Amino acid sequence: MKRNVLLTVLLVFVVFSSIVLCACYQAAISESHVRYVGMMNIASEKIAKTIRGMEMNAMNEFDEVEKHLDSPESVIAALESKTSLNPEVRGYFAAFEPNFFPQKGTWFEPYVVHVDTSAFEVRMVGSARHNYHKSDWYIRAKKSNKSFWSEPYYYYDGTDISGHYTTFVKPVFDAQGRLACVCGADMTFEWLSKELQRVDEGFRNNELLNRFLLNGKEDFYTMVINNDGSCIASPEGKKVSLTQDQLVNSLSRKESGTLDLTIKGVPSTVYYGPIDYVDWSVAIVVAKQSMWGPLLKMSLVLLLVVAIGMLMVWLAVRKLGTPALK
Length: 326
Known about the structure:
By secondary structure, the protein is α+β, with helices and mostly antiparallel strands. The strands form 2 sheets. Strands 1, 2, 3, 4, 5, 6 and 7 form a 7-stranded antiparallel β-sheet that branches. The protein contains 7 helices and 12 strands. The mean pLDDT is 81. The radius of gyration is 30 Å and the shape is rod-shaped. It has helices spanning 2-67, 72-81, 136-144, 190-205, 207-210, 245-252, 288-325, and strands at residues 91-96, 110-114, 120-124, 148-149, 153-155, 163-173, 179-188, 220-226, 231-233, 257-263, 266-274, 280-287.
């Protein structure tokens, strides 16, 4: 009899525990999804806001150039006038059409570049060696007649301005509607890496986001990736490329989604979504181990509860049932 009672109680505990564990599993999956999708959207909005601010400052600079197309000297003065407005911009340039200013010949490209946090200087960078008329950004600007962000690229000329860049580009027209030049604002990705570091630290230190975490720590980091899955910017030491066909196809369509991958030997889930104003996406890489930490702790707690419950039932049955069985 005692054996039947114990088996019945054990079955009830097992069924109950299985139901609770399944419910916890689904809740953990849903909570994790909502959590990281929300974090991804916040990161995307912050980066888009910063990029939009850069665009507006650059447009102010380009408008000044458009107002001062009467001479090479006035163009350079216009470029210098607002250079200090955005410290994240490495330099502003105006790349002119051949012989727009006859005295300047085929290549006239004044470049106002920051040499430190406060000072800048004017350089003439157009030449046969740097034939910007054949550059992708120049050709695209002439064809599209609208502003855009260039693809990330590496520029090298043997000077201190060599590095990884992206450029906000806009064609500028004269009073007769002819293309005068293509203006650009060059930015390195240092600001973006710093922004991602701040975003991740903000998530980890956010009391509301972390209030109900059982494990207290989560192994994740945020990256910005191109539409081919290559890494544009990431926290220090976290640079990886996500070049799986399924992900690349989704990125090229500016979609949001999730994908399970093994990254540097660690099973992970990648949450990704597009950033406004640019053809880039935010990706949050989360180690699966940290995602399952809370569920594992819940499972251990349930097993402990079942064990204690079974022990209490066994003691109760033994105490109550012994006299009647003699």
